[in-house]
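Q: How would the structure tokens look for this protein?
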Amino acid sequence: MTSRRSLLASLGTIGTFSLAAPFSRAATAATGGRSGAVILSTWDFGAAANAAAFARLAAGGSLIDAVEAGAMVPEADPTNHSVGYSGYPDRDGHVTLDAVIMDDAGGVGAVAALEDTVHAISVARRVMERTPHTFLVGEGATRFARDQGFPQQSLLTPDSEKAWREWLKTAKYQPEANSEVRGLKPARTPGGALDHDTIGLLARTADGRMAGACTTSGMAFKMRGRVGDSPQVGSGLYVEAGVGGATSTGLGEEVTRVAGSARVVASMRGGATAQQACEEVVRHIAKLRGDAIRGVQVGFLALDNKGNVGAFCLLPGFTYAVTDAAGRTTVLKAASLFKA
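A: Here is the predicted structure in token form.
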């Protein structure tokens, strides 16, 4: 039987998947011809995050102010079950949050396995600005949040708890893939609530300076202690002065294997366009992992320092929000390597 790897190499049909349009068509579909972007974020609910980020910039805020403000929107949304408040818990019933914030001057702050704190992105910013470290995890991250005056608040809402208890009936302690992992639009979980995804944001000023943020409650019903790509610099997020930035979505384990966002930025540094850079890393993951990524979603967004956008994913269904210098936001569908 012909292997998935050999078929990938020859750009043929793969199991129930077939390769989508070649680059020339994929690039047009992915970016809609858009350049001059100021704010870029994952998924359609990123439009509200972009609006908050743009408003902060318009009011005179910094890039870090803007990406923090944008990330705080889904973190506080009780209908979004994969970011912040109301995130789905781990398999033991604990909601834990991961976040990172980064600017192109080397400023970095991140937290992982943070508990009882709604705005993980703001705690990550405090790590960047008020500690000599770049990353705090678990009990230490939660204690730091209390020391910094962030209120203690339970993140497990009735809807999320209901979904968890439904999952327990048949799950046998296997994590439940969020919609971004399945390559679908927001779907109904065992508890009946709409499932969403991690949010990653990138922002730039007219002179090409950049910053980014990424925040999540991680995979639904994950093993306790699991951390995906989102808070890891170079995996979930990376920005570099004079080049651009990238963020990822989907199954974090696949992104971390290749330091995906750093790889996208490195490709742009080497001369690739934002679109070409996103395509390169997705194709690399598919070739590297073969049958192991069957049915799995991974996607990347990129924004160069001139405002050119790139977006590409393994499977159809990944959307993203682009806001231009006039504050106009468009939600677009990313092109994919495989067809449905």
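DSSP finds eleven helices and 15 strands in the chain.

The two ends are 22 Å apart (CA to CA).

Upvote if useful.
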